[in-house]
Amino acid sequence: MSLVEPAVATPEPLPRFPVPAERAVPAGDAAARGSVEIDLALRHAGVRRVRLAWEIQGQADAPVVLVAGGISAHRHVASSSAFPERGWVQDLVAAGRTLDPAHCRILAFDYVGADGRLDAPIDTADQADAVAILLDALRIPRLQAFVGYSYGALVGLQLAARHPARLERLVAVSGAHRAHPYAAAWRALQRRAVALGQLQCADLQGLSLARQFAMLSYRTEEEFGERFDAPPEIVNGRVRVAAEDYLDAAGAQYVARTPVTAWLRLSESIDLHCVDPAAVHVPTTVVAVEGDRLVPLSDSVALVEGLGRRGRLRVLRSPYGHDAFLKETDRIDALLRSALHNEGDAA
């Protein structure tokens, strides 16, 4: 049974791993999607059967770059003729960019647990092991690069530590070797908001509130000062500040596409993350953002120091904080070009 799904998905049983090599990755330059069921040994929950859903686009003979984002990201990174909907990192996987599908093959996958069907602790090491299995299933021996943003950077670090033969280089944007205690406290409070919602049979309201808390940690006071510097209003006898419409919209949009269990388990996964930088034996570019409340610059510096000659640090100053990788398209693209084209590599 093929791993490749039709462009218009139809209900069918999930394929079993492995599959014949000649069916693993579609030929040509058309985009394709597929999925595979595997038995994955989770670090904290034993062996579980999980589904790995993937998407790939670009020239068949081009080097493969795996792109992974935050816990809300998914396998659809950019539009294509087969799948024309806008992707989550559309402006970076485009013509003329470093990640131009005309010159490289872009692979992405849905994180283990993202479908909400796995209610167990999920480690970033589990995600990295899943990537290695997915590469086997697709008969991709080695990635030219793993480009990870936020949670994706954590997974990339684990892949580089646990499966270094599977990638040539790593670009880790807004992610470090550990969860900072301040950021972990933010996430713990967000999970408590969900728990309170569940106690009141209001799961979606709890998740919406958690997402709104998260938006404050992703962005900076600079951006809020520019966008929401307006006097409060009194609405139905209550004071309402200028940012509340934005936060409400962010919460509503998020709960419409995210299972509560998926968010809880992937949020926990960030806090479980821990990798020894000395165990990473792959050339790594670490991109940090000044003012990132979730991944302080000091942690990125510590990561690069631990990487030694294998690591280099690039620092952005942006009012978008942790979300700079989604907003600073031109600057991120320039950093990717430098990293993927070996400019200034550590010896």
Helix content: 25-40%
Strand percent estimate: 15-25%
The tally of structural domains comes to: 2
- Continuous helix count: 10
Major sheet: arrangement of strands: 1-2-3-5-4-6-7-10-11
Q: Stretches where pLDDT falls below 50 for ≥5 residues?
A: 6-23
Oligomerization = single chain
Examine the secondary-structure arrangement and name the CATH architecture of the largest domain.
3-Layer(aba) Sandwich
Main β-sheet description: 9 strands, mixed
Please characterize this protein's 3D structure.
The protein is of the alpha/beta class and 347 residues long. It has two domains: 4-178 and 274-340, Alpha/Beta hydrolase fold, catalytic domain (Rossmann fold), CATH 3.40.50.1820; 183-271, Orthogonal Bundle (Rna Polymerase Sigma Factor, Chain: A). Helix content is 35%, strand content 18%. The chain has helices at 124-137, 151-162, 181-199, 203-218, 221-227, 244-255, 260-272, 297-307, 324-327, 329-340; strands spanning 4-5, 32-42, 46-57, 64-68, 105-109, 145-149, 170-173, 233-235, 238-240, 284-290, 311-317. The strands form two sheets. It has a nine-stranded mixed sheet, sandwiched between helices. It has a two-stranded antiparallel ribbon with strand order 8-9. Helix 1 (124-137) crosses helix 2 (151-162), helix 3 packs antiparallel against helix 4 (203-218) and helix 4 (203-218) crosses helix 6. The radius of gyration is 20 Å and the shape is globular. Residues 6-23 have low confidence and may be disordered.
